[in-house]
Write a structure and sequence with these properties.
Order of helices and strands: EEEEEEEEEEEEEEEE
CATH topology: Jelly Rolls
Number of helices: 0
Number of strands: 16
Shape: globular
Helix content: under 10%
Radius of gyration: 20 Å
Oligomer: single chain
Distance between the termini: 20 Å
Strand content: 35-45%
CATH class: Mainly Beta
Structural class: mainly beta
Length: 193
């Protein structure tokens, strides 16, 4: 695959310079529904997880469906922004759920998150985290010294206790009834330079 990098564009007739430096630090953005579709950006083609049903949480950590991606950022990337959007709902009256982020098999411990509510939680949640590139690697923050080959990014989830279970990707109520309506998750990966 060929790539073109441009710092300046010179006008042939007016002699002026149109510069692209400093306009944005976004190198590429990969936004996808978790529908099993293929999405193409400059660094390659990526296929999303096909999420078709809700996911119940229990007291054992499990991959959060739809959150997985194997990604290689383009050359010159200094930060990768990971955003996963999903509906988090109650299964028991007082749901409390714990979430972890992983880069390959390493947990990013400083990204740990808990979602809970006193009663009947139903929230469209966005998990948003920045993974720096360059300098000394630090698994606690997710910093990568380099990132030139594919790395797996994913989240895991568990319930705080068996009496405080939650679920993802569905409602508990809809239009004046108890109804589990499916809500498809979304994943956005942004490479920043």
């Amino acid at each position: 695959m060929s790539k073109l990098y441009v710092d300046e564009i010179h006008s042939k007739t007016a002699g002026g310079i149109i510069t692209t430096t400093g306009l944005s630090n976004v190198k590429e953005q990969l936004a996808m529904l978790c529908d099993g579709g293929s999405y193409t950006v400059p660094s390659g083609t990526y296929t999303s997880t096909n999420v078709t049903a809700l996911q119940d949480f229990n007291t054992t950590y499990a991959d959060l469906s739809g959150s997985n991606i194997v990604y290689t950022p383009p050359i010159g990337t200094t930060m990768v922004r990971y955003q996963f959007m999903f509906l988090c709902s109650w299964r028991d009256n007082y749901p409390i759920s714990h979430f972890k982020l992983f880069v390959d098999s390493d947990e990013v411990t400083k990204a740990r998150t808990t979602i809970g509510a006193e009663n009947y939680l139903a929230v469209l949640q966005t998990f948003d985290y920045l993974l720096p590139i360059g300098g000394s690697a630090d698994t606690t923050t997710g910093r990568q010294s380099t990132w030139t080959s594919p790395k797996t990014l994913k989240m895991q989830v568990r319930s705080y206790h068996s009496s405080f279970d939650g679920m993802a990707h569905a409602t508990r109520h809809w239009e004046n009834a108890s109804s589990e309506e499916f809500h498809i998750p979304k994943l956005i990966i942004t490479a920043l330079g």
